[in-house]
What we know:
By secondary structure, the chain is of the alpha+beta class. Helices cover 37% and strands 22% of the residues. The protein folds into two domains: 21-273, Deoxyribonuclease I, Chain A, CATH 3.60.10; 281-347.
Amino acid sequence: MTRFLILVLLCAQPAKAAHLLKALTYNVNGIPVVTPDWPAKRDAIGAKLKEGGYDLIAVQEAWSDEDAQKMISASGLPYSRRYATRWGIGTGLVVMSRYPIIATAQREFTCRPSALRWMTGEPMANKGALMVRVETPKGPLDVYTAHPVAAYPDASFTTLRWTQLFELAEMVLENSAGRPFVILGDLNTAPGDPGYKFLVDLLGLDDACLDHGKDACGITNAEDQARIDHVLAARGPGRFASAKTAFAGLIPGTQLAYSDHLAIEADIDSRVLSRKPIPNIKARADALTALIARLSRLSDAMYLREEARAWVPVYGFLLMSRYDHQREQLAAISARAESARIRVLQAAP
């Protein structure tokens, strides 16, 4: 009887929790001059980053060296990397870590909006992706952050965004084959969008906010009325312990929101940290086929628009010059996607 009671008590004890890693992704909307009261927001964000007790923080739109460094210092995390700048303009991407960073890689996206769309600000931004390899207590983890082109009322940039998501997926497969990874970022695509499914199918991804069934996070960007911010990992055993939005409400003592986005924070257990990319062959092949078809349609549309407007003085010349360059970029992406599709089909059983 005594042995039976001891066995019952032992079984009643909660299972030992897997090692948890607390991660955050946050678009801070740190556009100097343009963002109202940005210095005050930046300092408040930095203070809240430290309060959060995060192990990993990925920030998007920390555009200037000074702003990035102030948030890094305020976070209290000892290790960080910022995407290297060009001509004083960076990608706005920063990763901070409690654990040592043992490797870094970065990639500038090939395709960007036309300079004729300068009012959006997108052509001037060096959009890309940043990877840091972090030595966690459970082994190395590759952490990616990215911020593809956004959509605007008069320009959706859908196909360009697909090319950037494709290059993010390429980067993951090239750097993290056989390695666990997470993607933390504002991907400007929401669950249910074709672009979201495209990336998920390319890599075989699991969404922290959907890991427990329905979306646990909700809207992160009021303008889009959607969750375009994500914590993603390869599918596999285990589950994210939790995921939720953060940085809601106003900065204490002010009428200022921290950002035009909410952050996503997620607790990641050791089983998620052991997952490695093994995309579904059919889903990946179908995604690559869809990308190639989109690129072809966009290229054809450029020819038609060019023919219709080539006669316009100055504008017609600028349009042709820009479209010639963009078609070359699209053709290069299409060739890479076709090569990837052939490799996938050859690997099929």
